[in-house]
Specification:
Immunoglobulin-like; eight-stranded mixed β-sheet; mainly beta; single chain; 9% helix; repeat; signal; binds 2-acetamido-2-deoxy-beta-D-glucopyranose; 4 domains
Length: 502
């Protein structure tokens, strides 16, 4: 009834007298020709709201919610812009605007003096629009939690959906036309465009976005953890750093900050090419260049990358030692009691000798038993032109149908190489292969033997004494105390060129 009260004090104060009563609607409606309608329309359209009875009428007047619009009894009073009353009682609203949305009341008096009211509605539909908060770019560290809120407008009420890097997200909370999404920043991979899309079926969906930039402690990786060099050579130590924000890098040698100069310099190369995707993450290769390596330059280096969140570092060894040996697959058929081993290594300084370690390992039908100790042989190196060494060596007198594992190291004047990977082989005859498989088991073996160094050296002396060179073959019984399997080893050293071998 509020509209009525407001209406009274304007034009129709004498005419209405407050007698209108909605309770009469049922009775009234029977006399209406027009039917109550909600008109869904669009901006700039023209809308016609009918109001007519079966019988002629005395007057008609229209209200928009509480505001009087037109009255047929007072044509001299100008209606609001874009509003017009037709003689048949219809109300026309032209060029409708969003603010025209609302209820429109028609009050009509029949010739017989019965007053009736009919309600129509205009709903001006308009496309969705949406605002996001925060907007632009938001920087968040791993471990933080950020709430992003979207507020949509439009008629009808838009539906909001969320996307992260184009993937639809499900969980969100809603209050009215505001929705929020909590992002728990767990990893770098969450970085990207957060978008909310508001759709109401009118026009194009509206999209608002914010770029989520994930900040993290620098990540350091090394293409090589050991750099092989020699005195007088030029050495490059490389360190790859990914970070957001960008990291500063410092280099240390034996724990001391390196001062750059003519002998030692650094340079950087940017590796991140796809800036549009991950545009705040820097991915940079830092290189420490030692122009002419001196003895004092050898040893442990550290590349340490800092940003405001923290730092990480990685160690690189600069050494003159030979590289670890690599066993070559030997395609030749093997006899039941011997095995040809071929390995390759590289050393800038001449290699003086190799240390070959081998031992028998249990096959499947042998119940799990403790591994035997390594047997070790010292093998002199051949003279080679260049830095690549390929060596062939035959183990003789092995137990047939058995499994063995071998590892080899090389030594130059700088020191011993790291152990090669452990390689397993079987001597000829039926042998059931056990389910050895995991690399980790092998790795474990490789480290374990460092503690056995002393024991190995002793054994090595015994065996070295029994070796013969220069294509000669010698039979040597090393005694039961030295050899675990009480086998007789016949050691034959080939001075064979690797190429001739195949
Ligand atoms: C309505 O008319 C105005 C003025 O001519 C125009 O700017 C606007 O874009 C129109 N709206 C639509 C939905 O066509
Ligand atoms: C009322 O008059 C207008 C203008 O002549 C016309 O367009 C409309 O159809 C009429 N409405 C009714 C319900 O007769
Ligand atoms: C860069 O990003 C675009 C878009 O994500 C992708 O299609 C393209 O393969 C990326 N390029 C590289 C070099 O990673
Ligand atoms: C293991 O199995 C092979 C063939 O199946 C057999 O010849 C050999 O004697 C077995 N070894 C042991 C220790 O049982
Ligand atoms: C292996 O070496 C250790 C330490 O020298 C010794 O105690 C052990 O008996 C050896 N095992 C075998 C099977 O020879
Ligand atoms: C070895 O592998 C075979 C086949 O995968 C399996 O049946 C057997 O149980 C395994 N043996 C052991 C000791 O794990």
């Amino acid at each position: 009834m509020l509209w009525l009260l407001l209406g009274i004090n304007i034009i129709i104060i004498t005419a209405v007298q407050g007698q209108l009563n909605f309770n009469n609607d049922l009775e009234n409606n029977q006399k209406f020709q027009s039917v109550p309608t909600t008109i869904k329309t669009y901006e700039n359209d023209t809308v016609l709201l009918p109001c007519s009875l079966d019988t002629p009428f005395r007057y008609v007047r229209w209200h928009r919610d509480d505001v009087p619009l037109v009255d047929s009894r007072h044509p001299e009073i100008l209606p609001p812009d874009r509003v017009m009353l037709w003689p048949n009682g219809s109300l026309q609203v032209s060029y409708v605007q969003t603010e025209d949305t609302g209820d429109y009341y028609c009050e009509i008096m029949s010739a017989t003096g019965i007053r009736s009211i009919q309600v129509h509605a205009i709903e001006v539909q308009y496309p969705a629009s949406v605002l996001i908060e925060p907007n632009g770019v938001t920087e968040q560290s791993i471990g933080s939690v950020v709430e992003v809120a979207c507020q949509a407008q439009g008629v009808p009420q838009p539906v909001i959906t969320w996307r992260l890097n184009g993937n639809t997200l499900d969980r969100y909370s809603r209050t009215g036309n505001r929705q929020s999404h909590i992002f728990d920043i767990k990893s770098r991979s969450m970085a990207g465009q957060i978008e909310c899309v508001a759709t109401n079926g009118v026009g194009q969906p509206a999209v608002a976005g914010v770029y989520l930039q994930v900040l993290f402690i620098p990540e350091v990786s090394l293409p090589q953890t050991i750099v092989y060099t020699k005195v007088g050579a030029r050495a490059h130590l490389e360190c790859l750093v990914e970070s957001a924000p960008m990291a500063a890098v410092k280099w240390f040698h034996h724990g001391l900050l390196i001062t750059m100069g003519s002998q030692i310099t650094t340079h950087e190369t940017e590796l991140q090419f796809n800036r549009s995707v991950d545009h705040y993450v820097s991915h940079i290769k830092h290189v420490l260049v030692i122009k002419k390596v001196r003895d004092a330059d050898m040893g442990q280096y550290e590349c340490r990358a800092y940003n405001k969140l923290g730092f990480k570092s990685a160690s690189i060894e600069l050494t003159g030692r030979p590289m670890p040996c690599i066993f070559k697959i030997n395609p030749g058929t093997q006899s039941p009691t011997s095995h040809i081993l071929v390995w390759q290594t590289e050393s800038l300084l001449p290699i003086m000798e190799f240390k070959l370690k081998f031992r028998q390992i249990p096959s499947r039908n042998v119940t799990k038993q403790i591994r035997t100790n390594w047997t070790e042989l010292t093998i002199p190196a051949q003279v080679t032109i260049g830095s690549i060494y390929i060596t062939s060596y035959t183990l003789h007198g092995l137990q047939p149908a058995s499994l063995f594992e071998v590892s080899v190291l090389a030594r130059n004047s700088f020191g011993w190489s790291d152990n090669s990977k452990i390689v397993r082989f079987a001597t000829g005859g039926e042998v059931e292969l056990p389910n050895y498989s995991t690399e980790s088991e092998m790795q474990y073996d490789a480290t374990e033997e460092y503690s056995e160094q002393n024991e190995i050296t002793q054994r090595s002396q015994i065996l070295t004494a029994s070796m013969t060179h220069n294509r000669a073959e010698a039979l040597s019984n090393c005694g039961p105390s030295a050899l675990i399997y009480s086998i007789v080893l016949i050691i034959k050293l080939f001075y064979v060129n690797f190429k001739n071998l195949y």
